[in-house]
Amino acid sequence: MQPATQTHPPHFTRPGVSRPRAVVIGAGFGGLSMGIRLGSMGYDTTIVEALDAPGGRALQREQDGFRFDMGPTVITVPHFIEELLALRRDEPRLDDPDFDAAVLEDASQVRAGGPAGPATARYCKLVPILPFYRIAWEDGTVFDYDGDPASTRAQIAALAPEDLDGYDRFSTDAEAIFRRGFLELGHTHFGTVGAMLSVVPDLLRLDAVRTLFGFTKRYFQSDKMRQVFSFETLLVGGNPLTVPAIYAMIHFVEKTWGIHYVIGGTFALVQAFARKHAELGGTLRLNAPVERILVEQTKRGRRAMGVRLRSGEEILADVVVSNADYATTYRHLLKEQPRFWNSDRRVEGMRWSMSLFVLYFGFRARPGEQLPLAHHNILLGPRYEALLGDIFDRRVLAEDFSQYLHVPSLTDPSMAPPGHHAAYTLIPVPNKGGVGGYIDWSQEGPALAQRVLQYLDERGWIPDLRERLVTQFHITPDYFERELGAYLGNGFGVAPTLTQSAFFRPHNRCPDLPGLYLVGASAQPGAGTPSVMMSAKMTARLIQEDFAAHAAGLSQRAEAVAH
Ligand SMILES: Cc1cc2nc3c(=O)[nH]c(=O)nc-3n(C[C@H](O)[C@H](O)[C@H](O)COP(=O)(O)OP(=O)(O)OC[C@H]3O[C@@H](n4cnc5c(N)ncnc54)[C@H](O)[C@@H]3O)c2cc1C
Questions:
Q1: Percent of the chain having pLDDT more than 90?
Q2: If you take atom 34 of ligand 1, which residue's CA is the nearest one?
Q3: CA-closest residue to ligand 1 atom 10
Q4: Structural domain boundaries of the chain?
Q5: Is 322 helix (H, G, I), strand (E, B) or coil?
Q6: CA 397, CA 91: separation in Å to the nearest integer?
Q7: Pairing of strands 376-379, 260-262
Q8: Alpha carbon of 252 to ligand 1 centroid (Å)
Q9: Looking at 82-91, 199-208, 260-269, 300-309, which range is the least confident one?
Q10: 3.90.850.10, 3.50.50.60, 3.40.50.2000, 3.40.50.1370: which CATH number matches 21-76+262-349+494-562?
Q11: How much distance in Å is there from the Cα of 85 to the middle of ligand 1?
Q12: Which pTM value belongs to this model?
């Protein structure tokens, strides 16, 4: 157990400064988690955010009395939230098994409808959602997935009884992947080839390097079950046809700790993190786009020394962490700096995750009406593999679509005016790179919005939707590119392929510039709100390690001088 109070780490470069200073570029979930971690490690931390609100992809927009979460809606792994919100100033708790166990115990009760962990409860109201997803096909069949093995078996028996045995085998093997890949290795930063090679035998033994869709084919004969047990990676930007089967762990992560919703929307969690960061002494500066990472030349080489804002103001720091897009960080913020590992060529040569079309809409409810929808719905179109090919390989906008439809007002009426519902529907679309035809979203966006509204209306998901519609707006790849600085309008950062995972994914400690670190969806381990919280913990450990090494170097030098 670490001492309740420990002296803060020695600063790198500026004797006389009472506490070391850190600056974090970007206030997405990754940047806010990092700010909280750095506060707990004793840093004076400033988060600088380009936009006028924190949250990044998790912004919320209000329109005509409706509140729309613009990004993440499926909240998983509640103990990661509890852990961050339970931290205190000067108590990093980075390697404290007792603390971890207590947090896990406190937070896991919410899975069974119990209270959220005590720290979480101080900041926001987290509630479990059941079923996790309603998955529907065009032939009218429906699968309510809730993570409970008995009810999952009953659903499989109704739709694909030939796959019951396969489900049992899938569960056993996916659990083994979850145990090794998430519980044991989840927070491992793969900074060396050796670290990577040491886990290869395990990955091969677990068959986790085959594609996820190929993996599900080993267990399920029916197309429907293959889809049910592979679509979840789309929610973190991964193509089920190409992501490695290690992502089968998502299924088990959800099954183990449930799926949750924050009353007031995911943005209430953003606000909770921002408040926690402030309580740990941090400063959040909005409307403060960073133009450059400042670099100083010391006797021991170059190192990051702060940031310059577009306004010209400079903020000096001992540690700089970028939560901005990987491409933005290297191609723009370090534009003139020599880079070996993260050259423009490497950045541009990476595969980038798909983009998204998201339609946000509010509509009148009818008295006593029971919509055939759950809180989270996956409405699959007529094609699965071929549609994924259109999005990820051919990069064309298909006529048909599959969608994730989210109706938070079914759980939380505060998201819409009385007598109304708030909803969003998300459709994976190609990003703006590659070989496909140019898509003019100013034309295609409104047309796609009409097609989607018509589909939901005519298929009976929301009867007479177009007559009942009160408000709507949509975002396209242009939004991701322009508003969030996402390269090629990517929705989820660097794509999670086998050759862009672990060691091959951008490193959280910049190998080109000491003092610079990365956090968030493009860094290790990857995209999704729990992953970017993990990313912050991994980066915090690296910073702690580097400080320890630096402090050891200082004392050695002091001893040498004394002798
Ligand atoms: C529509 C959608 C739905 C999703 N659904 C889910 C879900 O249900 N569950 C889930 O777990 N995940 C989901 N995700 C993924 C998840 O939202 C992201 O992986 C995660 O929020 C990314 O957080 P981040 O901190 O890495 O990046 P971001 O949220 O993108 O934050 C980066 C921040 O950096 C700022 N920034 C960039 N450049 C600069 C600069 N030069 N100066 C200052 N600031 C800068 C940006 O403005 C932004 O605020 C979804 C994503 C989207 C888009």
A1: 82
A2: 26
A3: 528
A4: 21-76+262-349+494-562, 148-257, 354-489
A5: strand
A6: 50
A7: unpaired
A8: 23
A9: 199-208
A10: 3.50.50.60
A11: 20
A12: 0.95
